[in-house]
From TrEMBL:
Residue ranges of domain DUF4440 in the record: 9-119
Region feature (Disordered): 129-150
Sections of the chain in a coiled coil: none
Organism: Ponticoccus litoralis
InterPro entries: DUF4440, NTF2-like_dom_sf, Steroid_delta5-4_isomerase
Lineage: Bacteria, Pseudomonadati, Pseudomonadota, Alphaproteobacteria, Rhodobacterales
Protein name per its UniProtKB record: SgcJ/EcaC family oxidoreductase
NCBIfam families: SgcJ/EcaC family oxidoreductase
Length: 150
């Protein structure tokens, strides 16, 4: 699916999310597009983008909503742009079925304009950890950390 403006990707992504359709999310990407999720899983191509989104949207994200915050579009030339948006995810279920807390991410899209309009060629979703500077790996866990003195 090609878009009229690069920045239209945000509303289209949210609409596909709310439709619970991995295929609709993948259709926003070029055939050879890629997507890196919040845990660093890296999917190449529409089919590889569609499958895990569809699974998540029909299971632990089945009752979630995305709320759009700050959004910026930066032109990288006449036919390329970077679109960044802050998203708040609400309604996720924990593995035990209980309600999980709200999460915030920054989702970045690299957009390219073709003959039919704009499509994402790459996306990366980064988890926001308010008040933290970095992560510390210890054994099997990674903990958001702040080194600044209290």
């Amino acid at each position: 699916m090609a878009l009229k403006r690069a920045g239209d990707i945000v509303a289209a992504f949210v609409a596909a999310w709310q439709a619970r359709s991995g295929a609709e999310i993948a259709a926003l990407f070029a055939e050879d597009g890629d997507f890196v999720n919040v845990t660093g899983l890296w999917w190449h191509g529409r089919a590889a983008i569609a499958q895990p989104h569809d699974y998540a949207l029909k299971s632990f994200f089945a009752q979630t909503t995305l709320h759009v915050g700050r959004t910026e579009t930066r032109a990288l030339g006449p036919d390329h742009a970077l679109v960044r948006c802050r998203l708040t995810l609400r309604g996720q279920r924990a593995p035990d079925g209980s309600a999980a807390g709200d999460r915030q991410t920054i989702l970045c899209f690299v957009m390219a304009r073709g003959p039919k309009g704009w499509q994402a060629v790459s996306a990366q979703n980064t988890e926001v950890q308010p008040g933290k500077e970095t992560h510390v790996a210890q054994g099997e866990s990674i903990t958001p950390t702040d080194y600044r003195a209290p």
